[in-house]
Design brief:
By secondary structure, the chain is an alpha+beta fold. It has two domains: 248 residues, no CATH class; 95 residues, no CATH class. 59% of the residues lie in helices and 18% in strands. The protein is built from ten helices and six strands, in the order ααααββββββαααααα. It has a six-stranded antiparallel sheet, with no helix packed on it. α1 runs parallel beside α4, α2 packs parallel to α6 and α2 packs across α7. It is elongated. It starts with a helix and ends with a helix.
Amino acid sequence: MLFDSTVRKELARSFGATLMVILTIFMTNMVIRTLGLAANGAVAPQDVVFIFTLLGLQTLPIILSLSMFIGVILTLGRMYRESEMAIWFSSGVGLARFIRPVIATSWPVIVLVGILMLFVWPWSYSQYNDLRQRFEQRADVLRASPGQFQSSGDGRRVFFVEKAASGAAAGGRNVFILNDAGTRESVALSQSGKIENVGDDRFLVLDSGHMEQTDKTSGEHTHVEFKNYRVHAGTGAAPNNNAPSPRAVDTADLVLGGGPAYMGELTYRVGLILGVTNLLFMGISLSAANPRRASNWSLLFAALAFVIYFNLLNLTQAWVTAGRANIVVVLVGLHGAAFLLGLGLIWWREHATVIHPLKLLLRRSAR
């Protein structure tokens, strides 16, 4: 049908353009965030691209939801402003008739959001947490990339490795260590260094170097040359016995777990999928605009509705996590109410003149 094909083509173009703009904004922020993590020593520099991909997968469901919502607002809003909507209305096509082409265009996005939230979301968080834990459990000197200064976890030591050593031994060449031991400060330089494991401890073994020691209280300087020098470089990777974060747990395990934290995470995942559908109905009703007024109030109200809806989604997740609400009550209450609100607004827009006959009587009496 001409009506369906017209709306679907227009909506697909608006969704694509909106998605590109929002993706560009989010990608710029994620690049800055990822590079900041690497610069602060929170992640390994060689893992930056993979971490950027994981962060992108985590934010993609919200990006798709927002893009689809704004696409509906822009498409129908343009029809209102250019009086195209008046032509459809005069042809006997009501506002509720737009639901079918909007759903027909949006269902791939809804399915994709569902797959991302139920399967990709926990996997990305699990991979991200594993990367950070493995990096944090590494010795301080192992976290130092060639050509970069790396501070220890307690901030008392600074390592610098000019060039990574080749071979199986973990270490490097031209190693620099600044150690602040309170009243004494030392600077050690060596031609090479390597990591040795002794039990649960790691030691950095320096070869052929010298060290300058300074007593901060007396100002006394000491120069020492050495052929072999050991520096404690942390402990081995301890087994991680902590329970995984609910965000990193598979959806099936969340259902079987049954704890408040798991139910709270399940509330968010299912709620976001339901929220995408509800936002489509809200977008159809909130896109109404007066063709005689060049304003973007509909877009402003739509953005406000999006923010309020997703804040309520986070709030209900916190309630379920704290054990103050039941997941079924929350899903039915919040998203059922949003669904009815969207349909109610569509019906009100379509029957506005019938609902308010009192306004017509007041205008006639004023004459």
